[in-house]
Amino acid sequence: MEERFSYEFAAGEYRRLEEYLSERGYRCEPSGSLRRRRKDVGDIDFLVLGEKREVLEVVGSYPEVERRINKYEFQLRSGVCIHAIPEIERRYNFTLWQSTGPKKHVKWVKEIYREREMELRRENIEERKIYTEIGLEYIEPEERYRYQGE
User: What InterPro entries would the database entry show (predicted)?
Assistant: First the structure.
């Protein structure tokens, strides 16, 4: 079974990572269960604005990284794993929304788009607009587990 970490612990680990990346000129935001403010998280998913190879090199050089797990995942000395999601500016908001999840929620929203024969734009879209384009009010990340369809 995957080890779980308290939200408070993971948020502290993320803040230190965010500071490290910010000092190097990178914009980043948490996604996944950390952004949804779940009481516990299995890993720390985060989006970083920038070119993939460069972002992964900088994340891999973070002093708290103990080892690289795969191309995008690293284990910190504290035991928590981080999952870097590099993204370019024009797709950043869509990827933030999609990677925030949960998967059932994302699938539900995409299905509404399909049912209405609408295209869910992946480029240059504000996260709120993903919902308003299909007649929904914006759903905060921490509430998305409640809205997942059937």
Answer: NT_sf
pLDDT (tens digit, 9 = 90+) per residue, 119-147?
A: 999 999 999 999 999 999 999 999 999 98
What's 20's domain CATH number?
3.30.460.10
Closest by alpha carbon to 44, among 24, 65, 22, 23? 65
Q: For 20-57, give one letter per residue: b (16+ CB within 10 A) or e.
A: bbeeeebebbbbbbbbbebeebbbbbbbbbbeeeebbe
The reported pLDDT for the residue numbered 96 is 98
57 plus 112 within the same structural domain: no
The structure's pTM equals 0.94
Percent of the chain with pLDDT over 90: 95
Based on the fold, state whether residues 14 and 81 are members of the same structural domain: yes
Q: In terms of residue numbers, what domain contains 116?
A: 93-146
Q: Quick one: 104 and 41 in the same domain?
A: no
Same domain, 34 and 65: yes
